[in-house]
Amino acid sequence: MSNNKNDLTEGSILKSLITLSIPIIFANILQTAYQLTDTFWVGRLGTVAVAAVSISFPVIFLIISLGGGLAMAGTILVAQYKGREDKKSINHITAQTMLMVVCISIILSAVGYFSSPFLIRLMGVESNVFSSAVSYLKISFIGMIFMFTYMVFQSLMRGVGDVKTPMYIVLGTVLLNLILDPLFIFGYGFVPAFGVTGAAVASVGTQGLSALIGIYLLLKGKYQIKLHLNDLKPDFHLIKKMFRLGFPASIEQSTRALGMTVMTFLVATFGTLTLAAYGIGSRILGFIIIPAMGLSMATSTLVGQNIGAGKTERAAKIVKLSSITAFIALTIVGIITFLFAKQISAFFIPGKTETIQASALFLKIMALTFGFIGIQQALNGAFRGSGNTMVSMALAIISLWVLRFPLAYILSQHTTLSEVGLWIAFPIANVIAAIITIIWFVRGTWKQKEITEDIKLTDETTKETIITGGMN
User: Fold this and answer.
1) Can you tell me the mean pLDDT for 240-254?
2) Are residues 309 and 202 in the same domain?
3) Are residues 197 and 331 in the same domain?
4) What is the pLDDT of residue 170?
5) Smallest Cα–Cα separation from 232: which of 66, 453, 75, 465?
6) What is the pTM assigned to this prediction?
7) SS3 state of residue 290
């Protein structure tokens, strides 16, 4: 490969981790700004409008989880082929990943669009919210192809180690969304007021722009990856392999989304006060997950490239350093959260003394095990980067469905702990899940899987790629 400016198989491991992690974390924070912006401007329309947008978020988040998991296959394969310095295969995988995910997004968009009324009705919304929620969800589904296309671009760029370019694009589109949201919601001049639907229109517009920019950059080939139109001919062997890699990652992310939803149902049985306390705690947990996931994604890229380069021992060192870094960083955050639990709770619900005390207790019980969440995420990043997405999926299921939820149910429903049992389940599950993940990692079987050896490009595909490459 002619361009090695992002060679992550040499040099300081810590520097590589930090260089990759920070832009990913920032980009993830910016992605959440879409929801915050929609909620802020829609809030000016009243409670019904906010409810219409809020009820749609779980459905959209679930679909995003599916798309993100499939795009992960591109990250894994591109990273490993980048480590092998095989540019032709990277370009071919780029086209096939884009083809697979775009086709799936079209199917999901169509199904989601026509089933939107059923989905909203299934969630039991009140009649005055129904029409706005359906309209918002339908527009969101129309734009799903843009969202998925950009996710593929972002994942592929991350695979070759370029995390800054996607971050700049997200920053630009989020800023544009700040302008378009009020324009389409309230209208101005010749632009009509769409109300709640306007928020979805603005988001789809900016997502469409980011997708077009991503495709343009891939076609230009200036960022270590080039999208060749000849490579868009379906390679069913490769697509099947990518689906086997990506589907477990989709299940893993979807499991996390569903896990929080099911926990909400259990928490709700203890009343509004406990539900409010859980709401604050889960928001804090959401913020903690962002840097943990950033480090996890960086670990995936580094492990993938080094395994592809045949440097398994360096890959192992990367994982160990990443785990230690995540544990120390999130433990420090946990200590700060523990010490200032009341102040953090008061920020969300000022003046509500009883709720502040309840949520502060939840934060204190959970906070000191934040470091174990960091370990889990770092090691899961290693499993994904090496192609062991089934392992990562299994660990997510164990953490949420075998440990956290059953523990929360037993401790809260069948002991005298009551709602405190809900909170205790979190640290117990965090520690046990981290120990299981460490044991799985220490076994070392993750290092034995080099997925690039399983993928053989056909002679016809290879010739086409070589011809196309020679013309540029």
Assistant:
1) 88
2) no
3) no
4) 92
5) 465
6) 0.85
7) helix
